[in-house]
Amino acid sequence: MQSLHFGAGNIGRGLIGKLLSESGFNVIFADVNLELVDAINYYKQYNIRIVDKYKDEIQCVKKISAIHVENPDIYKIIANTNLITTAVGFNILEKISMIITQGIIYKINTSSQMPLNIIACENKALSSSYLKKMILSNIPIEYHAYIQKYIGFVDCSIDSIIPSVQHKEKDILFLMAENFQEWIVNPNQFKGKIPDIINMKFSNNLIAYIERKLFTLNTGHAIAAYLGLLKKYKTIKEAISDHDIRNIVKSAMQESGNVLINRYHFNKNDHLSYINTIFCRFENAFLIDSLERIGRNPLQKLEKQERLIKPLLGAIEYNLPYKNLIKGIASVFHYHNKNDRESMKINFLIKKDGIQKTILNICQLKQYSYVVDSILTEYQYFFS
Asked: If DSSP codes are grouped into helix, strand and coil, which group holds residue 285?
């Protein structure tokens, strides 16, 4: 079995590539970073240090190669592969869709009837379905029937913390990752035989698990990051060790959890246990996870379907408490990082339009003026 994975970054190598290789796939990484591509082709393996409270071991990922995304040979690879996965960032999917489209056309022209399944492992709900829409819009309509018959677009939820690490020059492929790994897919979207992949789980109620991860790990991570940056902390471990931040983050996760319990009828005790599991992961002293990494792209994190506003809207919908979610949202507007374009844009808008109008427009809460007032109050509190 052969797989092509777009994105040789932390999630690509540390989770997806690792699981595929362990499952017997020959993994080909496709990336724009020529240094990474050359290193993968030279070493043909890389090491991951797996660390948590109970484990500290080196695992070696083998059976790998790489290709630059602009190499035209990639179309032939797409035509002859069984599985395509991505971990490039949701905003890059449009560019990837053009490459996959050309590969599918190549596949059709060779009269291949081998099913191809595509799983977009992005931090956004239903990314594979989104990718399918882009590919169908790119490709001539006479090819649509072939795609519906032979090409599967499989939505998923992935979860694992794999922070950036400082490398020595010869170790640019080395990664450190937690032992926790979750990859949940919709089994009804595969074409042909479902591949046997280690740690892959199936769910017919995928959206519930996507939101569980978004409202818990991602919500908690983001709030801890922005509150921690306000206090000049550097890592998630430092931030979560602060008593005040810890209480706000855990309470915010419980507020978002109440939304999940109401919406998807999760067992309350089971979900509280899941929150505690997330906290144990945050406290992993081995993972030096930078708050700047977690907090990057704040505008994206404030989108209506994202980790801060979506649980807030859910709490409003079900008439549930949300005061700690408000604190987390307010803290984003204090984030200032000259190396983060979205952070600088927020700061520019605050200076240009004022904080109240900026909150109103970015958070899209025009019909909830009382909520905007609450965010503004918390924003001003952080100045006091």
From this structure: coil
| Residue 63, burial from CB neighbour count under 10 angstroms (0-12, 13-18, 19+) | middle
pTM above 0.85, yes or no: yes
CA distances for 185 relative to 132, 209, 349, angstroms: 16, 10, 39
- Kindly list the structural domains of the chain, giving each domain's residue range(s) and its CATH number in brackets, ordered by start: 2-204 (3.40.50.720), 207-381 (1.10.1040.10)
Round to the nearest angstrom and report the end-to-end CA distance of the chain. Answer: 60
- Neighbour count for residue 175 (Cβ, 10 Å): 25
Regions in the chain scoring below 70 on pLDDT: 166-170, 383-384
**Angle CA(311)–CA(309)–CA(234) in degrees, nearest 5?**
100
Spatial CA neighbour of 123 closest among 159, 163, 176: 159
pLDDT score recorded for residue 166: 64
184 neighbors 206 (Cβ within 8 angstroms): yes
CA angle 115, 116, 118 (to 5 degrees): 150
Cβ(294)–Cβ(222) below 8 Å: yes
Q: What is the 3-state secondary structure (H, E, C) of 51-117?
A: ECCCCEEEEEECCEEEEECCCCHHHHHHHCCCEEEECCCHHHHHHHHHHHHHHHHHHHHCCCCCCEE
